Amino acid sequence: MPPTALPPPGVDIEFTADQTTVNFGECTTLRWNVQNANEVRRETKKVALTGTEEVCPTESSNTYNLLVQTLEGENVERVVSITVAPTPVPTNTPTSTPTPTSTPKPQAQNPIIDKFIADQNSLSQGSCTTLRWQVRNAQTVRLDGNQVANQGNQRVCPTASSNTYNLVATGAGGGSVQSSLTLSVIVSTPTPVIIYVQPTPIYAPPPVIVPSGPPSIDAWVTMEGDCEYYRWNVNNVKEVYFNDKGVTGQGKQKGVCLSGGGVIINNPTLRVIHLDGRVEEIFINDGPGSPFWR
Question: 228 by DSSP, 3-state: which?
Answer without folding.
Answer: strand
